[in-house]
Write a structure and sequence with these properties.
Blueprint: H1 2-25, H2 28-56, H3 63-68, H4 70-73, H5 81-91, H6 95-110, H7 115-130, E1 131-133, E2 140-142, H8 144-147, H9 152-169, H10 184-192, H11 218-222, H12 224-232
Antiparallel strand pairs: 1-2
Helix pairs in contact: 2-5, 2-6, 6-7, 6-9, 7-9
Length: 234
Amino acid sequence: MGALLVRINEQQLIQRLVPRLLRVRQTNFYRIIQRTLMLTFPFILIGTFSQIIQLTVLTKTGFIASIFHLSKWVPYYRYLHYPFDSLTALTLNGVAVVAAFGAAKYHAKLNQRDDQLAGLTAAIVLLIMAYQYTNQNQVGIFNTLLIGTNGLTGALIVGGLTGLFFKWFSKPVPEQSSPHTTDILARTFGSLFVTDGVDVSHCFGCEPRFELADDRHVFSRKLVGVSKICDDQP
C-alpha cells in the first residue's frame, strides 16, 4: 500500500514538473543560456585537458611525472610546460569573453538584431571592465577573475544587458545566410544609427551611391564624404 502511494505521488510530481520544464525550455532566457554554454564548452574542455596534462605530467611533483621520473630522462622537460601554460591561459582565463559574446549574440539574434555586432560589443565591454592599471609604469593587465571561469556569471549578465540594449535602441536587420565582407560597414550603420532615406548597403562597392532623404538630415550630409571617397577609387 505504501509503495503504491509513493508511485502515485511520483506520477503526480512528474505530471506537474514536465509541463513547467517544457515551458521553461521554450523561453528565450533558456535558449540564450543553453547556446552560450554550448559555445563555451570547447574552450573549457580544451583548457581543462591542458591543465590536467600540465599538473600531472609536466610538473615534477605531478602524479605521472613522479611515478616515471620524467624530469630525469625526458629531454627539455623543464621547457615543455610553456605551450600548455599558454593554452590554459588562453582558454580558461578568457572563456568569460566568449560567454559575453555568445549571450549578446544569441539575445540579439532572437530579436532580429545584428548578432555579430552585439557580441563584439559585449566582449569589448567586458574587457574594458576587466582592464586594470598596475603601479609599474602604468602597464595594464586583465583581471582573470572577471574574464576567466570565475566570471562566467558576470559575463552572461553583461552579454544579456548588451543584447537588451540592442533590442531597445537598434533597428531590426534581415537575416543573412552568408553575409559578404562588404556589408560590414552597412550593417554597422544600420544597427547603430537611424538612417532614414539613406542607402548604405553598398558603401564599399560604391554602387549605388548614398541616396539622401528629402529632409536631408545632418547625418545624411556626413555620409556624402564616404561617397566622395568612392568616386576616387578605380
